[in-house]
Amino acid sequence: MSDPDTSPPREIVVVPLPGHECRQLLLDQCINVRIDVFVHEQQFSLDVEVDDQDPTATHFLLRLVPSLTPIGTIRAYRVEGANYYKLSRLAVLKPYRQYHFGRDLVLALHRWVIDDAKKDGAMHVARVVCHSQLPVKAFYSKYGYQSEGDEFDEDGAPHQKMVAYLSP
Q1: Helix or strand run (H / E) with residue 124
Q2: Rounded-to-integer distance, Cα 99 and Cα 78, Å
Q3: Which residues sit opposite 125 in a β-bridge?
Q4: CB of 129 within 8 A of CB of 84?
């Protein structure tokens, strides 16, 4: 386990909404991190990595400062027609996993969900769903996620639906 004081300086930026001049550049950086992790490292198909949620989801980009080198990402969106948020595409480049930056990304996403739920005013508790690869279920459990239902196959790998409830 790495000492937080020795971890490289970094920042998390929320990729601006569609229509903003910087969105595509930052979104491309998020997608490139995901391709490195999910396609090159874990051998998932590129065809399923970039999907129809990318254009409208809220993306978070973890990057080193001052170089602005992208090293991690996560995305969230409110599921249309449902009353919950979806956490997906959490990826941190392998050399930086020792610093537990996945935690920083999940907590940033949780803060965004809480803020978004407060704006809505209708939710007393925000439900966040993720489809966890089986080897990282314990990681999500640390942040309040609990298994729900049976394991299932997603894109050729076993996954578990996990749900967290956040109070706005």
Answers
A1: none
A2: 29
A3: none
A4: yes
What are the C-alpha distances in Å from 150 to residues 73, 87, 129, 155, 159?
Answer: 27, 19, 14, 16, 9
Please give the radius of gyration of the chain, using alpha carbons only, rounded to the nearest integer.
16
The closest alpha carbon to 123, from 152, 153, 82, belongs to 82
Report d(CA 111, CA 124) in Å as an integer.
Answer: 15
pTM score, whole prediction: 0.94
Alpha helices in 56-142 (DSSP H): 101-120, 137-141
Contact 11, 63 (CB under 8 A): yes
The β-bridge partners of 146 are 163
List pLDDT tens digits, range 108-129: 999 999 999 888 776 689 999 9
Contact status, residue 143 vs residue 74, Cβ threshold 8 Å = no
Whose tokens are 């992208």? That residue is: 70
Strand partners, 165: 127
The DSSP secondary-structure symbol of 168 reads -
Residue 99 identity (one-letter amino acid): Y
Residue with tokens 């978004």, as numbered in its chain: 116
C-beta separation of 164 from 146 below 8 A: yes
